[in-house]
Design brief:
about 300 residues, mainly alpha
Length: about 300
């Protein structure tokens, strides 16, 4: 049957892809797409390979032709949105994402891509609208709640961001990134004893479960806010040793060292935190403390 042939071609395409033989993969996926034009897999695979080969224009032409013959194709709008976003045609991409979610609201990718695109264009309000719409169709989506939390943070809506992370953790208590980001919001914006306690219980196991520098740093920052300075400094030094250039890690360590009277070291880390222009929560605080240390 056609379906079986298409499956065989997909397997062959994956084999070529694994060997980085992208031209051959592209040829095989194109054949599979011709055999089963309405199946998502061959088309998704073909477009991915074409884009990797720098043939975004070819994908665009193909997808536009497909949409001319089936205007409600379940996957073509979402894929065309991705191709347009790659070629920086952001408004056109957003229009296709909108069509994609109208035709196929259960397909998560266009919701996530559309919201991410809005955030990257510094339009958190649009991202929030998109995500709330997406959540009506997919209320159990961990990814949508995660992204909603980011968009709410960007808007400065801290309580709503906290609520979105709490929902994410209800859906998946093992989502370490949600636990991390929630702990950071609680200690940076709340500071009351019960918020600190919650941040502590969220981050308590990071040292053994998530030895990534950002997670270790969060654990240290929470400890610091709880008054456990020595333990905080130990953890933050560990984080900075793993990722010495990261601004926020240097900022947290610098502040903790400053508070414990280690002024020369504090100054070094705060200067490092401010060396690059990337924004982080506490940048002004870092500038003020550094000015005091230099004064």
């Amino acid at each position: 049957s056609t379906g079986n042939n298409s499956m065989a071609l997909l397997a062959e395409g994956r084999f070529y892809e694994a060997q980085r033989r992208l031209k051959e993969a592209s040829r095989v996926y194109e054949h599979a797409t011709a055999l089963t034009p309405n199946a998502p897999e061959p088309l998704l695979s073909l477009v991915k390979v074409e884009v990797a080969l720098g043939q975004a224009q070819q994908s665009r032409t193909r997808l536009e032709a497909l949409l001319a013959s089936h205007k409600d194709h379940s996957f073509a709008h979402g894929l065309l949105g991705e191709v347009l976003a790659l070629t920086r045609e952001y408004d056109a991409a957003a229009l296709h994402y909108r069509e994609a979610v109208r035709v196929n609201p259960k397909w998560m990718t266009p919701w996530l891509n559309w919201a991410t695109l809005s955030l990257s264009q510094k339009k958190p309000d649009i991202a929030v609208q998109v995500l709330e719409e997406g959540l009506k169709a997919n209320p159990e989506s961990e990814e949508l709640h995660m992204l909603l939390a980011s968009a709410r943070s960007e808007q400065g809506q801290i309580d709503l961001a906290i609520a979105a992370y709490e929902t994410t953790l209800r859906l998946n208590s093992r989502n370490l990134l949600a636990a991390n980001n929630l702990a950071v919001l609680l200690v940076d914006h709340k500071r009351d004893p019960s918020s600190l306690q919650r941040a502590f219980s969220l981050s308590r196991d990071f040292e053994k479960e998530a030895p990534h520098p950002l997670f270790i740093d969060t654990l240290g920052w929470v400890r610091f806010k709880m008054g456990q300075q020595e333990e905080a400094i130990r953890l933050m030094k560990q984080a900075v040793s793993k990722s010495p250039e990261m601004s926020v890690l240097n900022y947290h360590l610098g502040i903790a060292l400053f508070q414990s009277g280690q002024r020369a070291e504090a100054r070094m880390h705060l200067s490092k935190a401010l060396k690059s222009s990337d924004p982080f929560e506490g940048r002004q605080d870092a500038e003020q403390v550094l000015a005091q240390l230099r004064g």
